[in-house]
Amino acid sequence: MRSLVLVLGLLLVAAAVAWPVVSRYFGRLPGDIVVRRPGFTFVFPIVTCLLLSLLLTLLLWIFRR
Known about the structure:
65 residues; two-stranded antiparallel ribbon; alpha+beta; 2 strands
């Protein structure tokens, strides 16, 4: 149990350190849909969601082994 908490803590610290770089690209990948009209903006980050889903699936698959 302690090792799980340690790993999760390290992942949280790594995510906090990487966030300034990651936030620049989050929602701006090729394939993300952005519709801008006067007074209205619609953002549908489909590629970003697929990439995050793949990354989380791989991480959970690794931790379950």
